[in-house]
Amino acid sequence: MSLWRRILHGMTAFSVDTVVSNLAAVLSAALVFRYLDVSTYGRLTLALSFYTSATVFLDFGLGDVFTAEIARARGAGRLDWARFLLTRYLWLNATMGFVALIVFLAIGYRRDPLWTVMGTYLLTTALNEVLRVLFHSYTHYRHLATQSIVRSVSRLLLLMALPLWWRGELLVGVAWTYPWMDVCALLVSLWLARSALRDLQEVRAHGYSLASLAALFRQQGIYVTLSIPVKRVADQLPVWFLKVLTGDVGVGIYGAAQKGFSLLYAFFSALETTIFPLVSEQIETDRERLQIALRQMQKYSFWLGLIVAVVGGLTAHWLILIVAGAKYVAAESLFRLMLWNLVIFAFLQSQRPLFYALGQQKWLFALSLASTATYALLLGAGISALGVSGAVWATLLNGVVFGGARLFILRRLEPQMYIDPRSVFRVEGFDRRLWGILRERVGKRDL
Question: DSSP letter string over 21-68?
Answer without folding.
Answer: HHHHHHHHHHHHHHHS-HHHHHHHHHHHHHHHHHHHHHHTT-HHHHHH
